[in-house]
Amino acid sequence: MVDALVVRDLNKSFKAPAVSGLDLVVRPGELYALLGPNGAGKTTTLRMVAGLLAPDSGTISVFGIDVLKDPLAAKRIIAWAPDEPMLYERLTPLEYLEFVAGLWNVPPDLAASRAEDLLRTLGLWEDRNRRCEGFSRGMQQKAALAGALIHDPRLLILDEPLTGLDAAVARQVKDLLQARVAAGATVILTTHILEVAERMADRIGIIQRGRLLAEGTLDELRAQTAGRGGTLEDVFLELTGDHGATRTSNL
Amino acid sequence: MSGAVARIMRGNTAGLLFHELRLSWRALLARSGGGKQGLVIAVLLIGGLGIFAGVPLGLFLRNYQPPVSRLPIILTDLALLAVASLMISQTLSSATESLYQRGDLDLLFTAPIAPRKTLAARFMALAVTVFMTFALMATPLLLPVALIGHPSWLAFYLVLAATALGASAIGLALSTLLFRLIGARRTRAVAQFLAAIIGAGFFLVSQINTLFGKSQAHGIWAQAKALAMDEHFQLPPGADIPLRALLGQPQVLLGYTLGAVALFFGISTWLGNRFAADAATASGADTANAPDRVHVARWETSAFRATFRKEVRLLWRDAALVSNVLLRTLYIIPLAIIVIRSAHGMDGFALAAGAGGLVFMAGQVAGTLAWITVSAEEAHDLLAGSPTSQVVFRRAKLAAAYLPLIAFLSPFMGYLVWASPMVGLFAIIGCTSAAFACGLINIWFQKPSKRKDFRRRKGSSWFATLAEAVIASMIGLATTLAILGTPWAAVPGLIAAGLLVMLRRSDAQIAQAIED
Prior knowledge:
The structure holds 2 protein chains of 2 kinds. By secondary structure, chain A is of the alpha/beta class. In chain A, about 40% of the residues lie in helices and about 25% in strands. Chain A has helices at about 40-50, 70-75, 95-105, 110-120, 135-150, 165-180, 195-200, 220-225, 230-240, 245-250; strands at about 5-15, 15-25, 30-35, 55-60, 65, 80, 155-160, 185-190, 205-210, 210-215. In chain A, the strands form 2 sheets. In chain A, strands 6-7-8-3-9-10 form a 6-stranded mixed β-sheet, with helices on both faces. A 4-stranded antiparallel β-sheet of chain A has the order 2-1-4-5. In chain A, helix 6 (about 165-180) links the parallel strand 7 (about 155-160) and strand 8 (about 185-190). The longest helix of chain A has 16 residues, at about 165-180. Chain B is built from 21 helices and no strands. Chain B has helices spanning about 5-10, 15-30, 35-60, 70-100, 105-110, 115-145, 155-180, 185-205, 210, 220-230, 240-245, 250-285, 305-315, 320-345, 350-375, 380-385, 390-420, 420-445, 460-485, 490-505, 505-515. Classes of the chains: A alpha/beta, B mainly alpha. The interface of A and B includes residues 72, 80 and 131 of A.
């Protein structure tokens, strides 16, 4: 079976290297959490996978499609949802979904039924005719997520999807993502909430200074720290060498 | 923070005023897009104008003492009325922005400072900003004239400051009244429309003879002169106060200034508590937005149509933008009417010049709209991440930008083609070329940013704005010359084409510029 995402020797520099020789493989139908400290290169990597940023070198393949050679074909099966919702404040959620469905050429009947399903599932149906400018952060995030799902992507890439959400909305989003994975979609997400990765992810990748430090299930990661790590947080801090947290706790 | 600044910033009214003025100054720099470079250019322009126009004017007027008679009184009153109306328009627009939209009142109100002080500083900052705008415009001509033989005319600055205080007070009262009558969201929209209409109002009134008069157009000068000669027309009491104040007559100047100060402080004190309550309401107003009318979904299968529809919706729903466009299109009306009346009367030169002006304005309006549709993109990554070529988005965004212009100009053009087919044809070609050229410039020099940052042409590069103006004027000139039947029309046409070729940027260059 073709892998959902294959990244080989990926490099990108701005003023300093952001991603350095990154190799990454995500299997179809899995929920993959990409973790790393601030500035580790997670968002840069995902933006390159989504075709938003050109790498300096390396290859990216999504379900066998070369993202760099045939970006439009790759984009047809990818959805990208950044931490800051990509919304138009003066459009209603329904108008927003109309627009996004048009961009992906979703047939009208299918788009209409998917939009209703998504808005109902995410609890936005009653607000479908209100402009997004008055929405709370959670409602905006849900509307943006509905937009990301309207074309039923095979690979869903989410950057910090749970940031700023209250517990109820976060639960809705997590349930939706797990339902997508159960339906066969592949999800890659970044998060600083390590409990989320611990509970949801099939596999976890830890990235630092643009390189993959470790990868695997939680048990496999624990094994890499020679049993010193208990929770994912312990493993993460051990692998990234960020003992600042420990020092701070001693203050 | 320097010691002096730290001393000022101690939470008193002066400190708050300093804070407000610093924010206004930085917003101005951000709008000019050039930072320090833009500032240097502005200083050079003002200095150059002062040396090459102000000084000769000062020498010319050195021994002139205007009499306090009917004509100068009428002209001064009209000029002050125009300035005051523009000041009210500016205050109305800035008041809604700084009082209801900037979102920092919560911070200031939670500080241990009386809300009265905070609001007084903000009101004062509005008046100072308004004053500075007009003082800067007048200085290159006025300062040399005052220094060369008319030191008492420096009273102009005091009169201008007093007028700014009075106009700001009226603008603030109007925006509070609107808020009370129609609520926060509509106030923003209506204030923007009112600001545009008041701003353009004086211009339109000055063109009233062009719009409705006989074949000969009269300017303000001719109208004022006729009024001064009319023995039946009685000047209202106090009509001479502005002129006497401007000439520096101490008692009148003091009275005018004190009157404006009293008006300002009276209204701002009276409004202070109301504003605090209104601002608190406004900060929560967005979350209580009413639903739009029930929407019948139209699912598009084409990215072009979906983008076009999205852009048209967003244009229509952006009150600040619509008022900006309205302001510009209002200036087209007299030009269009000159063209139509000239076509009807077959006045060759006026017709050609009017058509050229129309072409220039069409380019400017198209440029403004294209700048918004192309660069004001809240979800740039959504478009970049979709399986649609960027060319499709550009076409759709330009098509949406041209739609209001086409709707507005079509009746004029239709009439022109009917009345004078050749002139109509040249005008259509000119308007289309100017709009297309200005659209292309806005694609090549796009700066994607959030729509809310585009209330004016914020973020636009001065270079692109200048290029638009030069190319649109060249195409306008070519149209004028073509209508006059001279082959010299080819020269400005070729210059415009040459400039466009020089400015052209490839897709890769555009992408690189955006990334930078």
